[in-house]
């Protein structure tokens, strides 16, 4: 047992867990990295810490300063947690369509929450642009800018990738996940390719995102939609630039729901939909790489963040999505 000096020291070093269904069906070893075990409960704690450290190092974030960010929720939670432990104020701008649990969590953590209507990125009222303006108008504030601040992907180059490499003793043949900012896929991809040039990196895109068509056909084009939160990008962010992606898959919500339910029923893993989309992609990658291979993906955040949506009978029925068999 060790004693941590502060919460930041507890971010990362998450375990890998073997996923029964995908491993059995493919004959491969399909592993999930338990990012929901981070102190703020998601993969975004790593980016939040690196963004704060970069602003401190640059001198733009001073003692008692303010961090402003536009986020689907998890980055805001990470910033609020690390911010609190270092004495910073956090202002979070979020689309009002995000889950009530994330809004409640942010308020509970002491973040100041600004809700804006969900609009396209081209609209000046979009949560990202609103957060940038707020940062400019607030004295002593820095804009975290997770989409285009490459301290985000650096966190994954420096921590997530080496952790995966060490935990598998270098026996990892493929990695896949979806992209929100793209920090995870680009950072883990770059970090693993440094160690093994022929490792296969797959992007798993939800419906409604434009990256699948970009990596498959060179055209940014979105089709359909997804109820997943935190993923589904429509542009090449600075974090995504130069991401070493070998292949791209598309996974629909209808395909991801049974995966979400199986992870709970067979593995005891209660998760959000981006994790299930990632695991569906990992099974595909494992099938391509063949029996005996090892594939790693990200288990992004816990199901408790979605008790009023993905894990709520009435909500699922209203969206026409599959119920867990034990809800019927
Ligand atoms: N899953 C969830 C639930 C998220 O909140 C995020 C972050 N937006 C991601 C996946 C994607 O991570 P990244 O921003 O590194 O692409």
From TrEMBL:
Tell me the domain of life. Bacteria
- By its UniProt entry, which InterPro entries does this protein fall under? Cys_Synth/Cystath_Beta-Synth (IPR050214), P-phosphate_BS (IPR001216), TrpB-like_PALP (IPR001926), TrpB-like_PALP_sf (IPR036052)
Q: The Tryptophan synthase beta chain-like PALP domain covers which part of the protein?
A: 9-301
Care to name a GO molecular-function term for this sequence? Answer: transferase activity, transferring alkyl or aryl (other than methyl) groups
Which keywords accompany this UniProt record?
A: Amino-acid biosynthesis, Pyridoxal phosphate, Transferase, Transit peptide
Keyword Transferase assigned: yes
Q: Name one GO biological process term.
A: cysteine biosynthetic process from serine
Q: In which pathway does it act?
A: Amino-acid biosynthesis
Q: Which Pfam families match?
A: PALP
Cofactor(s) essential for the protein: pyridoxal 5'-phosphate
Q: Which PROSITE patterns match?
A: CYS_SYNTHASE (PS00901)
**Protein name, please?**
Cysteine synthase A
In its UniProt entry, the species of origin is given as: Sandaracinobacteroides saxicola
